[in-house]
Amino acid sequence: MKDNSITIQTSGLVKKFGDFTAVNHISFTVKKGEIFGFLGPNGSGKTTTIRMMLGLLPPTQGSIEVLGIPVPDLITDILPRIGYMSQQFSLYNDLTVAQNLEFYGQAYGLVPENMGSVIREAVELSGLDGFEDTPTKDLSGGWRQRLALSAAILHRPEVLFLDEPTAGVDPISRRLFWDLLYELVAEGITVFITTHYMDEAEHCHRLAFIQHGEIIAQGTPTEIKREAMIGDVLEIDTNQTEDLIKAIYEARDNGDNRSLNAELYGSLIHIFSTQPKQHTKYLQTLAKGADIKINSISVIEPSLEDVFIACMRDSDIGGNHEE
Ligand SMILES: Nc1ncnc2c1ncn2[C@@H]1O[C@H](COP(=O)(O)OP(=O)(O)OP(=O)(O)O)[C@@H](O)[C@H]1O
Ligand SMILES: [Mg+2]
User: Fold this and answer.
1) 48 close to ligand 1 (CB < 6 Angstrom)
2) How far apart are CA 254 and CA 132, in angstroms?
3) First-to-final CA distance of the chain
4) Of 47, 152, 170, 247, which has the maximum CB count within 10 A?
């Protein structure tokens, strides 16, 4: 019997382009009604994974089921139940807002009698009222993004694939976009979203971190913070961040505390440490010796960004990727 609570299931998914492995044995499950975030740096395999789930690229190996249907074999059976917003927001610049929506409505096979009301609903949902006759090329990035989302959900899909929908969009538009996603999820839609914005990762119900085509951590934000992060984060407040980071790395080059990594975090420094007490003392002594004043140093709860950076560095040090 099919498990209706699972919307997407991939197992041992691989995609090779010639000798290059873009996606390397990844497996994940997306449950019905959740926002599943797929996080990774440029070129890590996010778009390739989405394209395989949509039946646009055949996997080299592994299996995919979307809404209980095997992909790509039976993709045509589920296309009407899927929405997709591609990384380039495939909108037609020369068409107006309403014309773009109409174009997508036709592509999704909406009957002409329903077209008007469906478009009106989409326009209202995305806050595009009054812009119906605006040429798409005159819309700002945030509005284009909302139009692209409206187009992707015109046919009321059960699952929505969004490929970096908020890239290059200002923070307020991004926030509004997430509010809209929550509304859709409340209506029962499942969302698979790729991003490299860490703050957005915190908004997802569950996440997978992908790097060099491999999943290096997955779970809820809380689980990932608890399990994937080995050690603590020391947060240092100093007015001489650059000097202190330099001093840490110089000492490291001279053989001191080789495992210490310091990252700039806004105006603060974050340091991953498996021995926070010992390292606090060490850093205080180091700073004093270099005539650097530390205002405060404390162990803090890691943010997802901390965990992401720590995971990526660990897996790079492990050298378990092909390049
Ligand atoms: N058709 C293709 N032929 C050869 N290599 C490809 C092809 N498509 C993608 N790649 C390579 O596969 C890797 C993963 O690409 P992909 O587009 O999936 O990354 P991404 O995580 O979506 O990156 P971005 O954040 O930049 O969108 C990259 O190194 C890319 O150059
Ligand atoms: Mg991409």
Assistant:
1) yes
2) 64
3) 41
4) 152
Q: pTM of the full predicted structure?
A: 0.84
137 & 90 share domain:
yes
| Count of domains observed in the chain | 2
Q: Examine the domain organization and report whether 219 and 249 are in the same domain.
A: no
| Ligand 1 pocket test target in 48, 50, 54, 84 with most atoms within 8 Å of CB | 48
Q: Is 47 in the pocket of ligand 1 (CB under 6 A)?
A: yes
Residue 306 lies in a domain: no
The closest alpha carbon to 210, from 322, 86, 308, belongs to 308
Q: Within this chain, do residues 169 and 270 fall inside the same structural domain, yes or no?
A: no
Query: What is the distance between the alpha carbons of residues 280 and 270, in angstroms, rounded to a whole number?
Result: 12
**Smallest-distance ligand from the CA of 86:** 2
Report whether residue 40 contacts ligand 1, using a CB cutoff of 6 Å. Answer: yes
Q: What is the pLDDT of residues 72-113, one digit of tens each?
A: 998 888 888 999 998 877 788 899 999 999 998 888 888 888
Nearest residue by C-alpha to atom 28 in ligand 1: 43
Instruction: Give the residue, out of 44, 52, 88, with the most ligand 1 atoms within 8 A of its beta carbon, to mutate for a pocket test.
Output: 44
pLDDT in tens, 196-212: 888 888 899 999 999 99
Residue type, 269: I
Q: Dihedrals φ, ψ of 156, to 5°? A: 55, 60
Residue 315 has phi, psi (to 5 degrees) of -75, -30
Report how far residue 83's alpha carbon sits from residue 7's, in angstroms, rounded to the nearest whole number.
13
Residue 317 counted as domain residue: no
